[in-house]
Amino acid sequence: MSSYFSHIAPIRYQGPGSDEALAFRHYDKDRIVLGKRMEEHLRFAVCYWHSFCWTGLDPFGSGTFERPWFQGGALMELAEIKAQAAFDFFSRLGTPYYCFHDRDVAPEGSTPRESHEHLARMVDVLGEHQQRTGVKLLWGTANLFSHRRFMAGAASNPDPEIFAMAALQVRDAMDATMRLGGENYVLWGGREGYETLLNTDVDQELDQLGRFLSMVVDYKHRKGFKGTILLEPKPREPSKHQYDFDSATVYGFLTRYGLEKEVKVNIEANHATLSGHSFEHEIAVAASMGILGSIDMNRGDPQLGWDTDQFPNNVPEMALALYHILQAGGLGSGGLNFDAKVRRQSLDAEDLFHGHIGGMDVCAKALLVAEQMIQDGRLAEALKQRYAGWSTPEGRDILEGRRTLEQLADQVLSRNADVAPRSGRQEYLENLVNRFCAA
Amino acid sequence: MSSYFSHIAPIRYQGPGSDEALAFRHYDKDRIVLGKRMEEHLRFAVCYWHSFCWTGLDPFGSGTFERPWFQGGALMELAEIKAQAAFDFFSRLGTPYYCFHDRDVAPEGSTPRESHEHLARMVDVLGEHQQRTGVKLLWGTANLFSHRRFMAGAASNPDPEIFAMAALQVRDAMDATMRLGGENYVLWGGREGYETLLNTDVDQELDQLGRFLSMVVDYKHRKGFKGTILLEPKPREPSKHQYDFDSATVYGFLTRYGLEKEVKVNIEANHATLSGHSFEHEIAVAASMGILGSIDMNRGDPQLGWDTDQFPNNVPEMALALYHILQAGGLGSGGLNFDAKVRRQSLDAEDLFHGHIGGMDVCAKALLVAEQMIQDGRLAEALKQRYAGWSTPEGRDILEGRRTLEQLADQVLSRNADVAPRSGRQEYLENLVNRFCAA
Amino acid sequence: MSSYFSHIAPIRYQGPGSDEALAFRHYDKDRIVLGKRMEEHLRFAVCYWHSFCWTGLDPFGSGTFERPWFQGGALMELAEIKAQAAFDFFSRLGTPYYCFHDRDVAPEGSTPRESHEHLARMVDVLGEHQQRTGVKLLWGTANLFSHRRFMAGAASNPDPEIFAMAALQVRDAMDATMRLGGENYVLWGGREGYETLLNTDVDQELDQLGRFLSMVVDYKHRKGFKGTILLEPKPREPSKHQYDFDSATVYGFLTRYGLEKEVKVNIEANHATLSGHSFEHEIAVAASMGILGSIDMNRGDPQLGWDTDQFPNNVPEMALALYHILQAGGLGSGGLNFDAKVRRQSLDAEDLFHGHIGGMDVCAKALLVAEQMIQDGRLAEALKQRYAGWSTPEGRDILEGRRTLEQLADQVLSRNADVAPRSGRQEYLENLVNRFCAA
Amino acid sequence: MSSYFSHIAPIRYQGPGSDEALAFRHYDKDRIVLGKRMEEHLRFAVCYWHSFCWTGLDPFGSGTFERPWFQGGALMELAEIKAQAAFDFFSRLGTPYYCFHDRDVAPEGSTPRESHEHLARMVDVLGEHQQRTGVKLLWGTANLFSHRRFMAGAASNPDPEIFAMAALQVRDAMDATMRLGGENYVLWGGREGYETLLNTDVDQELDQLGRFLSMVVDYKHRKGFKGTILLEPKPREPSKHQYDFDSATVYGFLTRYGLEKEVKVNIEANHATLSGHSFEHEIAVAASMGILGSIDMNRGDPQLGWDTDQFPNNVPEMALALYHILQAGGLGSGGLNFDAKVRRQSLDAEDLFHGHIGGMDVCAKALLVAEQMIQDGRLAEALKQRYAGWSTPEGRDILEGRRTLEQLADQVLSRNADVAPRSGRQEYLENLVNRFCAA
Ligand SMILES: [Co+2]
Ligand SMILES: [Co+2]
Ligand SMILES: [Co+2]
Ligand SMILES: [Co+2]
Ligand SMILES: [Co+2]
Ligand SMILES: [Co+2]
Ligand SMILES: [Co+2]
Ligand SMILES: [Co+2]
Fold this sequence. Notes:
Oligomer: homotetramer
Strand content of chain A: 5-15%
Binding site for Mg(2+) 2 (chains A, B, C, D): 268, 271, 307, 309
Main location (chains A, B, C, D): cytoplasm
Family (chains A, B, C, D): Belongs to the xylose isomerase family.
Helix content of chain A: 40-55%
Largest sheet of chain A: 8 strands, parallel, barrel
Binding site for Mg(2+) 1 (chains A, B, C, D): 232, 268, 296, 339
Keywords (chains A, B, C, D): Carbohydrate metabolism, Cytoplasm, Isomerase, Magnesium, Metal-binding, Xylose metabolism
Bound molecules: cobalt (II) ion
Order of helices and strands of chain A: EEHEHHEHHEHEEHEEHEHHEHEHHHHH
CATH superfamily of the largest domain in chain A: Divalent-metal-dependent TIM barrel enzymes
């Protein structure tokens, strides 16, 4: 029986005035926000990999964390100790969901069959923990990037035998997800990209990726899986050029292979900013394209050029993100996964709680701010008025294709008058947002 | 009669050994490269705006160039002086093409009709200069970003009357392009983007952009224009979020509005690197999607976060770009436009020549390097061998959809053996490229 | 009599609950914070250039603002209209200070003498406005970067005659600052940098800069000016390599020329982030080096690679900055200058108020958060405990130079035991900050 | 006896026309360049860590390289096998130097004393290999960043006992360097920086760093070491804020602690570009400050925000770097260390050779280009003429302090004439460089 977290009492809501570090000040899961419980809006998930598999290793140094399951021992026994600690953590924290990669929960074996069997056995273990604790699976995924065989890609590998190895892992990870009642299945193309065009046939590799994803979608339908298939865009890391750069790139890829009705995106805040966009830009663009699926809610560092995967800690920024998620109608079967890790110097068991409590509280407070922005209505009204011209009969005629270029041109020539621009009122609108953030 | 450049003799090819600054050392236009004249491969164009309209102004200071056509006078007279100087420059330099925006060649009038008439008169002037000098128009375009009326976008403007103003300009610029025998028509969405989501409806604006582009395509067909319609992607500047971020984003946009067979991209090297890609990545991706149209051949500065629009000056980098253009089958009706400006401290008439001569020589030398890379064949052969597995019957069965996920998974399980990765040989291939660059 | 702002009533404090856009919700100037009035802590200044001289022009388009003083007319008359409007704005807004460049307030003349006289006359005008309104001058400065003569630098110019032109402007601007009771004098090296080493002698130019600054310091002392001389660091813009890259670079420069006791830095938040640092890093580093002087309080955009000069709008970020300023003992004769501009689409007179009101309220709220951080004391206590080992006798012996490398090495060998690291507790501390931000 | 590289014949110079991949085309070590042998100019070193210790691990995946010394076994035996392979590689490649960290060559022991003894034993082994092969040590250094005890810094650690652990390692690494005839000693502050100001006292940590470096310098003098002590600047990685950000920052740090005559910098090309500078900027600035010591000759990727440590492969860029090194009088006891690694997909023994051969050839060709630039003289002459005004009597009077601010100001007023700027001729000069690059 794991006692790694047993000195920490379950985390409870104590309100904004609380002075207790191991308590929620804003996350009050049953509070009704815009007609739904806070927990149902936020659908928080803890990720297995960062909190239970990462050792604190970085490119310049070895692991710093001394968890019991990182000590020596038989691999499957360590996997069971880790699983017990993980569910103990989820329960004490009170998140409704978790997420995992196949290799997070079950060690790579010495043969494909052994890996397959490791996973199958661990799915039983996870299932029992889910049953016991009530914690559910937001999504499963397969790790197709850590093993050296995938160094040149999984589905985009120059070698079709490695493509097939990837197919095995994904089939098994989808089966695991289905058995555990997972609500989505995610593909992050960790090595689906390239280092140099000198050894890469982009056209060939994109076709491979399109084929692989089509196979995944076909399998989903054959098995009757009702969850959503999600691609997670990310630029630049680990391959210099990642194929799934951002949401707009993924949309183009999906349309190219006829999959835009089948697959959505899992947007990570840190990946958004790495690709040169704001987080809310990625949300709005994906929503506009009809592919907004789920969220990885972890921030990056604006001065660093890589994925730092930190917990969100800025309420005004998260309030805008949640406002746009709410305006897009929410996330459906998706949720907010903390694809975040405590800093490598945060050695203690308590630090895992501080990271998650801080992240959950920031999102909860941001949700309350977004609620006020919506209830107040001035932001939405300002937008409506700005585009009012497009709701006039002439505006609709243009937008719906009943005007040609030369008709419009000739109209302007005959009217022969300039049109004055109107203020965009950005500072006014930013102040309005702050009114709700710093009430 | 302009005498601004008359002290400079026409630029001639003198060979690599020449010590003359105002001569070509590599650009030998009639030299046959891979079966075509160098001039036909490179199809160089000078841009009107940077070399004849930009005053040297930047965000921190006023103009530095003292051209005759920047001195006081009647606007249309200055436009004629400028046109004469421009064609004098093109002729002395020996580029076959030029490019322009409507407002580069003809001043904005005080009413729409006056602007329309200014352009019409200047098209006559340009036509005479083309006739006289033999210089041709690679593409025309409309400036929909400098005037304050377009501060919130042209086609994506919240006000449909400004959309109509843009339609007039584009109709007129397309007409001008057709009258002048232009081989393409370009749209760069200078203000088609947004500053803040607080005042922006992305979904609405994308629909407006789709509509506008459809109107342009319809007009092209109605008028029987045979040139290519090109979108020029650019991230981040001048709007914080530009809709046409990069080639992959444009491809997704085109498919969304059913235009992917109608419109190609004009890729600018500097825009490529600003969007977080290498220049050759943008070329390869556009080629793979079937939308590679034309090139703006100007470099950025790797340490600066904006478009510096400098002339290319690095042969190894340009050799890779040209290699990929050649591998993609060339540019068709496109060409290499120098969307480049001499530095603001480069005050003299000679400096305009040095910039263009340097750029042309770098491209010419790069073409010769690319020719060697192709004739040598080792790069292409290495690529072919790397993907050889996909040409086997099993590889083809997978790629062409004759295998399911579970079939591949079960095959791997029954074979039950790992697959060893093979070296990507990046350093070997990079050295091979350098063999041709620094011969 | 200016009526540009006369439709806007003076801005007053109405408290957090106010629903009025043209009022302060947090800036309550007489509220006592840590023993001083809020106004005395914050010492806000409005900058003349962005709000009264910038036309909305950017590299891709012409001006968008239609202020009365941008219309045609005699230059000196327009300068007077502008000054009246500016002081009207300062008064209605209620900031205690303003800042200006010589060329902001008085137009460049056709000769050096005429420019000199323009400034002298406008100093009289400004002095009367100061007298009338009670608004004071935080600092003056000279614009040595906009005119084409300075394109290759002012003090770092290859031509000593241009160095002398700069000396004239700075002498006159210092005189103006003194006459107007300015509390500091700022030098921002707008063109003190270079584009390419090919035409630049860095060593020579640094010596020129050192000489110029020494002359400025000597002049200050000869004139008995009691204010602080400030350098404003900035990387990358407008020259590719700016000599005053960041505070640490400026410190090294000052020590090289023996000026580190004479000159401090004016840190701009946007310049800090452009140089790859956080804003509070620049504050802490300058404080550690004893050169923290004053602040330009304007934010950048984390996805853009240039100086966007936006008003601050993020309370948690500003709270950290103000916390570090307070921990460093405050700014002395410095203040918080909004070197910020409303967006180019923010056309209306009201928008100037919204920008400044938002910025002032964000800083005021941030000051209240910082006050709580200090009164609570847990942040400071955690820091003290972390470094407690350095206050032991052994710690002091090491730090004060009473131990050699080999003594420490031999001690470790004889103790022969490893030392366990302790948690850095970053997430706990970040949550503690948020406790005060989102109370 | 190592046979890992025994299938590869020693690499020889074969000239530019050679078609052999495992040969030099430009590096002809005895060729005389500007009066010195090429080998004496370039002083190439191979680094131990990237080529013999790095397993191919990255943040997203485990090792990819299967070297014999990465297989299981006793640590000291593996260290000896690795050393034998390393010297076999150095010899076959023909570089005159290598560099190492203590922990590269000798494994961390279970106690401080055991680590100390491991190093002592391996120094004997390395000494024998040096003796046998003639390969020399360019510099040694200590790894104070990989072990978890250093996660919060070594000399800048909050715990003085960890400072003392660092002292032991540096004392031992300096002793090892001296015993092996090393020509310099390097300190790279891998964890000398911080993640968040919330847990960091910058002022305290800088004092600790100053103290540590003073102890190192004192020890050097007590031991009579004649080599140079070098600091290697790097921004941002692995700590978010590294104290030794760039050369200018290091210079300021050295002056603050009175060490600017004692310590120089080891400039890494990749670190230069990460800090927002060009490589040649760092060289020129360090030369101007008198602290240019040695070079790490590895490139980064302009689109990636971290240290990719790739071999140089662009002749025009390296030619500028070498030109500025030569203009600064060369590197003295320093050299060109390839702090570079083959890509993680470059699995084969041959790939290690391709990486180094390519890098050496690029530098050799670049040296030949720089030689031409110097012999031609036009670049130097253009620079001299640009600054000619500063050599006039008046120019010297200003620069040497014989003019006051007001004297210059009054002179300008009485002359009362503007000064015209002259062209910076950047494009002309860039073309001139290319004349030698693509001859
Ligand atoms: Co993620
Ligand atoms: Co991430
Ligand atoms: Co451009
Ligand atoms: Co362009
Ligand atoms: Co600024
Ligand atoms: Co500023
Ligand atoms: Co290095
Ligand atoms: Co490095």
